Amino acid sequence: MKTFQTNQLPGRTVIADHGVEYLWFSGTDYLGMGHDEVFRSSIIEGFQHYGTHFGSSRNNSLRLGIYEETEIQLANWIGSESALIVSSGMWAGQMVMKMIENLVSKTTDFSSIQYHYAPKVHPALWGNAFTLSTSTWSTWAKEVVKSIHESQADTAHIICTDGIGSPLVEAFDFTLFENLPDGRSNIWIIVDESHTLGVYGNGSGLYKLINGIGKANVIMVSSLNKALGIPGGVIACDNAAYHEFRYSPWFAGASPPAPAYIYALKKLLENKHYEHVRGVLAANIAYFHNQLRSPNFFQSVPAYPVFCSQNPALYETLLSNGIMPSCFSYPSPTDLPITRLAISALHQKEDLNRLAEVCNML
What we know:
- This protein has two domains: about 15-35 and about 275-360, Aspartate Aminotransferase, domain 1 (Alpha-Beta Complex); about 55-255, Aspartate Aminotransferase, domain 2 (3-Layer(aba) Sandwich).
- About 35% of the residues lie in helices and about 15% in strands.
- The chain has eleven helices and 13 strands.
- The protein has helices at about 35-50, 65-80, 90-105, 135-150, 205-215, 240-245, 250, 260-270, 275-290, 315-320, 350-360; strands spanning about 15, 20-25, 80-85, 110-115, 155-160, 185-190, 215-225, 235, 300, 305-310, 325, 325-330, 340.
- The strands form three sheets. The protein has a six-stranded mixed β-sheet with strand order 3-8-7-6-5-4, sandwiched between helices. Strands 9-10-13-12 form a four-stranded antiparallel β-sheet, with no helix packed on it.
- α1 (about 35-50) packs across α8 (about 260-270), α2 runs parallel beside α8 (about 260-270) and α9 (about 275-290) packs parallel to α11 (about 350-360).
- The chain is globular, with a radius of gyration of 21 Å.
- The relative contact order is 0.18.
């Protein structure tokens, strides 16, 4: 497997260290914020107003209002009672996993806690009693529902899952959790939406869908540094969970993201720029899909920008034709490499035509 270095930010194309230019179909900048002029101008405004960073705990006696203002915007967009901005998606997940038992103990009566980790769940949600499931996601979800029904009513259950399969893309049927028992306040679903927030469904993520099932307390964690282009993370939850996380030492002791970026996030949510660019991305996904002679050539999800294959020859074939996807072991170095193509809002029809042309040769 070949690897490359570059000294430029990839966009539609990238120039590798040996001087060869490739069409770039990789990464997680699904909405193309790295080269979006509206986003860039908002960042510049933010830097002019807030400087380059905020070197302080957010629990200090002097606080920047932009964080709380943007959290309100995020909560409204996601559909949660509250939202909390932290330094990264990984830290959002790990903070929740460090604090979840404290939260359970303060909000519900329980005699024991049982964890349920989904197959290939992201390391951000690895916590106490972590075990790796080897079943399919749907089989796992049905087993979780069965296990909870068979458990004592005072056993608390913490269900940890991604919003969508990654790196091998797969849609998850969260309606399976409609079969969870009624009337239990001690069931929690923690979902990592780092690869769905901003691009999947209507763009605002899965929180409203999962919370609307009404069978569990729902906490969503996500990176903001993928589709939305913001170097930070978010926790979306109800007010009780927000209070537990907001006033924990894990939050107080961590530096916040640069306020200029949080200013830009608020502005782009207010002017619905993310929504506009997501429409461009959706059109690109549909166009590429329609150019493929064999729609089943890739493992993909409708209206989702990632196309995957376990064909070992695909990566080298694409490279030899001037197209750079990704192909590496993830998250463990022993995992099977998967060739992964990511469509972005930056791609033009000629880029998508060339990609489809090469894929159709195989």
